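This entry is passed on directly below:
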Amino acid sequence: MSTELLAPLDLAFWHLESSEHPMHLGALALFDGGDPADTNPTAIAELLARRAAAIPRLRMRVRDVWLPVGGAAWVAAKDFDVRRHVQQVRLPEDGFASHAVHHAGELMQRPLERGLPPWKMYVLTGAPGGSFAILVKLHHALADGMRAVAIGAGIFDQIAGAREAGSGRERSVPPRSWLPGPRQAVGFARDRIEELGRAVGIGASVMRAGRFDLWGASALAAGSSGTRRLGTAVLDQGDVLRVRRVAGGTANDVLLAVVAGALRRWMLERGEPLPGADPRALVPVSRRRPGSPTGSGNKLSAYLLGLPVSEPDPWARLTAVRAAMDRNKADGPGRGAGAVAVLADQLPSLAHRFGAPLAGGAARILFDVLVTSVPLPRSTLSLGGCPLREIYPMAPLARGQALAVALSTYGGQVHVGLVSDGKAVPDLDRLARGMSDELAELLRAATA
């Protein structure tokens, strides 16, 4: 794979990072155990390293370039050693799953080493032949949610086998001429004018949407400590679909309503007053087109959604969420304040280098919590013959953010990964229980 400039949004994510705000995505995958001879920690780590090393994208690192000024590029790491990226961690045998979740939260707060390809994988093991877990960390500059799934899936038996049977190479971006013809030039100019017009509209929406009422003493408005905590919840996909069939809308509408209800329960249990203005969720939306080149960078926009935590009735909360998401979809992902990520394409590289930290600090006035859905393959997955049982996605925290919620569906279950600032939200397990309680309440309302 040749040198490839970082896309504007990738560059923004690269420069958003600080020691207290690492900008990597994560996933904690739990596997059933197998034959102790084949699933000992060393064997798992060697298998993982071999498969990760076969993914071309994972052998690339970021290097500054002269042009464009302030830009950076992906280049092959000449001294790449996969053993620097795969680490074994032994955990207590009793209560292995809870130990894995706790340790994964601590590992998520460690930034990736920037001079190396920006990823790391940890093999978490307990009893010989028992359950084990894999924690994957990928820098957000390397991948958005869909891209992270495509890269991470390469470690599984099914995808690795298919790759080994094929060419084993990623599809590269076809070369383009630097000198467009007259028709292409006119089309480019027209598209550029339309993009600039959209950017002006998005910028105006962001200015109007900015809020400075930072929720008073709420944990979601607490200052950043640099610590991380991971909480998990498992929801029945069948229950989500049963609620959707009665309420209409999408399964994602139901899950967003579950998040709103869980936040309400959590606040009330903590004795916090409900806010006068409902918290805002940033709901990422992929702009990646089917069949687009794998190396085409982050392709993201987002919707802003008010989470109706002040509404006491669960069904009314779901109705409000569905109506708001319908309005968002009618406007499209390229409009409104939630589409602030689209602005990255309109800024020069130098602006990202010096302006990204400032923009990251302003995220707090636009939204309060990130809620993202990560698509996974529908097929059953395994590693070294050991079936994947659960997989929890994890999203990074921006400056001033204390909570991020990521959801993925696998094996008839919705797995919820909650990442929080460890000091601002130490009771993350209580919020995780609220997710299950809220879905149960919606199911009762739907059946009634």
